[in-house]
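Note to self: keep these together.
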Amino acid sequence: MAARPAGRTRLAVPARLAVAAIALLSVFTIGAGVTVARLLPQRLAQWKQPYVANRALAGSGQAISAATGIASSAAGITAAGLTRALAPIVGSPAFGSNLGVLVTNLATGQVLYSRNASSGFTPASTTKVATATAALQVLGPDARFKTTVVTGRSSGSIVLVGGGDPTLAAGRPPASDYPQPATLLQLASSTARSLRERGVHAVQLGYDTSLYTGPGLALGWPASYVTTGNVTDITALEVDQGRLTKSGQPQDADDPNNYSPRSPDPAAQAAQVFAGFLRTDGIAVRGQLAAVTASSGATTLASVSSPPLSEIIQWMLEESNNVIAENLARHIALATGAPASFTGAARAEESVLRGLGVTGVELNDGSGLSPDDLITPAALVRLITLDATHAKFRSVLTGLPVYGFSGTLANDPGDPFFSGAGPGLGTVRAKTGNLSTVGALTGVAYAQDGQLLAFAVMADRFTSLTAEGPEMTRLANVLAGCGCR
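Structure:
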């Protein structure tokens, strides 16, 4: 894929980065306490199962100024020094014929290394950083998504209305799952109680998915994305991201390593599960379930709400959850008055990002599954800088996996990617992205000399993941271990 030109971004960070830097340092130095275990599906990323490692962190040499609280060092990394340090890695044939890299000093915006930084690359799941930032900008970190039951158009009918909650579960999830999602089990209980108070003991049930428009799969997505367990049709009503048990029932547990085919009709299945819960609660459900559109004047009988957006974003980034990302993109569209379709969501997200000063983003979806998405390294670094600078976006930075400890950067001794006890262990927090010939990584690294670095590395024409992955790890370790003067 030919790279497209885009504007180069020079970055500046206000002094209030101090608070974010201190918070990040705390996270990086208490890596053994990280408790999240979620993973990008292996058929797309092939990173091993994340787990919490029990080991000491590599020292970063980080220093905090008593006067400002901003990470600093007596003698900072120089562009010439970092160029020399990175030369053996960026010259590796494992990255293929198209490589982009940008490294900046997060505290000053100084560009320390740049290679094709303003050219567009297929971003894969690093797209989720853009989606998360745009969603927080237009919705706010406390936003929640509501699933409701309303009265139908005829007497004795009710409608289950999808509100685009990508974390909605069917039954009761394990208590260890975080955050705890809303469930149809809760909704059915509240609905049954409301119906009994009205003297109603039998209903006809419809379900409404009209919040979104357009096809359930994006242009360029093969049907195999569903059959290999990477995503399900994007609809305003689904449970457990369409993940199924071997018996074909919704999997009431957050299991990113479930690679079974996902539900072919997630909305209809959610309605069937809800009907079953109603029957258990003593409400008869008569007739066939049908897709309908609820009346605008319908009375709400019951509702449940998702966890706050800040927690949903951390969930999405830790395990690189594609269904969550696509739903968030739809909510960006809805919040800005655009059609809640793949195309409408992509254009809305691009518009929101431009308003934040982020250029060099061309999208076809919100998850990065599309091979036609393009993002520049400069855009990713700009996003990381925004996330480090503004409290509104902080859940993006805190949701990024930690090298050696969580998510898609977890340290598995049998994994050639992001394993071993290099300088990056516990001091690099980043989002991975991977398709068949695409590898990308963007995030922050604490350098050995005390600087906090923002970086992006993108390669979309390599031939071997097993060769490219270790080079990505080497680059992250060089940044974390760099004195580079």
